[in-house]
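User: Need the bound-state model for uridine-5'-diphosphate:
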Amino acid sequence: MQRVAMVSMHTSPLDQPGTGDAGGLNVYVLELSRRLADAGIEVDLFTRRTSPSAPSSVDYADGITIRHLEAGPVRPVAKEALAELVPAFAAALAQTDDRAYDLIHSHYWLSGRASLMASRRWDAPLVHSMHTTARMKNLTLAVGDRAEPRSRVLGEEFIAANADLLIANTDAEASHLISAYGADSDRVTVVHPGVNLSTFRPDVTARAALGLNADAIVLAFVGRLQPLKAPDVLLRAVAVMLARNPSLRPRLVVPIIGGPSGAGPDVSLPGLVRELGIGDVVRLLPPLAHAELARWYAASTLVAVPSYSETFGLVALEAQAAGTPVVAAAVGGLRTAVREGISGLLVDGHSAEAWASALTRGIAQRERLAVGTRPHAAAFSWEATAARMIGAYECVTSASLIDEEMTA
Ligand code: UDP
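Assistant: Bound-state model below.
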């Protein structure tokens, strides 16, 4: 294994995660690429050119080159409109044959569709990570969220039938790919994502650095602001907590960290904060780089992840790596990312009352739950992710060599 083409058509790894289309996938692609490069594998990372100032290729780090492909207008295009640009991106990718790749690893369905042509032309196996699927999202739609189109479902079915290997984040995602997409179980492998344990770690100086009082109760939300992530659930729960126990008010701080994504949240968050009368405790903060985010995690009493659907939930792992328990919705990968009762609490449903009760329990059990956080997060390093991924890559390349020999 010497050279891998990593494909992320719809979002550049250089984009700031936590807003727009940039989130966990961007972090995943870069962290995995870094660890592959550390293991001596060269990575070319292909994405769509969205700015006239973006050069055709950027040396990102030792062993990692980011390559911008011309496909459609040289400006950002809404994710929903990108499907139309898949053929142009696929053609541009397949024509990039100045280097030989041992394998292509595509991320999200648009990249999977776009990579199939190159996979055939280069005779390089295709490994695909869905990250999210339309069928899963449509099963658990948030209020005000739009259903994913049939064209995406068909695209994902096509990838499931044609990729040499699908990477699932969890056993639950693997079962979903097999049962809902008809993927062949021999061609699905589970590789857990990771967390950067040096960036995200406990930090007793974090509160002082952020100007927070030592006795503050900090309940944080981190992520893209959209209906699926449900930041409004935390806000409504905070209003219920304050109604139940007004004495919390002077100590409560609720940072909401991230920027709008897709059509944005279905309610205006500043409007909701005003309507709920909690403007004095809520702080709406812009998307933050990991170094600064790490401080907020470490300074928080609890991090809330109220999503309606989550394939994994890197935010939950990052918070736990920083020593902070997580109160998360009992959905999808969050059931793996959080150890119920050990490193956090899982909540059924999204009612403000249930969330207020869970957060109140979380505050009361904070010290005990904190003990379980770092050991749980430590089981998910990016080094372990990369080691498993290299194993999966090797299996798929040797299987395709055997196929070639048998057909020769
Ligand atoms: N993130 C960030 N800055 C922010 C908000 C989020 O860097 O202000 C990052 C966060 O650290 C995490 C990613 O965005 O690595 C979100 O990943 P997750 O799996 O939680 O959600 P996704 O965006 O993939 O749905």
